[in-house]
Amino acid sequence: MLPNPTLDQLQVFLTVAETGSFSAASRALNRAQSVVSYTIANLEAQLEVPLFERSGARQPKLTEAGKAMLEDARRILGDLQVMRARVKSLREGLEAEVSVAISVMVPSRALVDVLREFREMFPSVSLSLNVGELGMVMDLVLSGKATIGIGGAVVKQDDSIVTERIGHSFMLPVAAHNHPLAGIGRPLTLGDVREEVQLVVTDASGRTKGRDFNVLSYKTWRVSDIATKHQLITAGLGWGGLPASVIHDDLTSGRLVHLDLDAYEQGEYPIYSVRQLANPPGPAATWMIEAFRTRLSACPSQADFHAQIAELQEAGTALAAE
Asked: Does the pTM of the predicted model rise above 0.85?
């Protein structure tokens, strides 16, 4: 007779493999360890192959057959989640509330435009809005505190999360107009910035722990959020990277100066929609994702952004001369 493993057996197998031990799996599943061991033994008996190597190792290690079965188990359980999600969306109508986590990398004008139209389209739907830095958007979605996330920093792929790129933004290294770096008058080198204070945002989520992005100075001040970083840079207390959408007006007015620093990576920063596989967005949240996609896909490239700033600065200079 062909083996016929149950979904429960596959879930237990997947949990043991992902947690690394039978005891950890029993805690994750809230079952006795003996029940977990018995379930795995039954699964192995049905399949007629050992899934874990138990002898001579403190922790169970997947056999070659177990590694092959692991991918099958993930696919089957993933398909089940998709089916459950589809049934849920068919049963449920318009949401009572949409909870969304937004990254500071999302241009504020796009955010305001989407929310203004959302209010008109769905007057009966309440809104819960959380603003997150770096990995916070992912954490809010994973914890269920946000139905959808709009942001970047997808540092680690997670099978329970669906991500889709819907736009882009970018960071620019800047300093106040009276900062020493702003007055050098030539492309900057690493030597120019090494001894200057660089302001860096700390990721409260811990998802990027041990990883620094574009940290070039020996002297760093670490702050909790982009807003504080923006204020301190504008006050001349250091230099650092800020989202282009945040500093548009500062660059136009001359309060901040873009630093010509090749060592600072200034590529496009992708923006994703993020949601749980098992918790699909309803009509209002789905509309919101598409609305953000429409606006973010129209955001200017770095070259166009710099051209816009230069044009506005020239217009301001001409107006002041009249």
From this structure: no
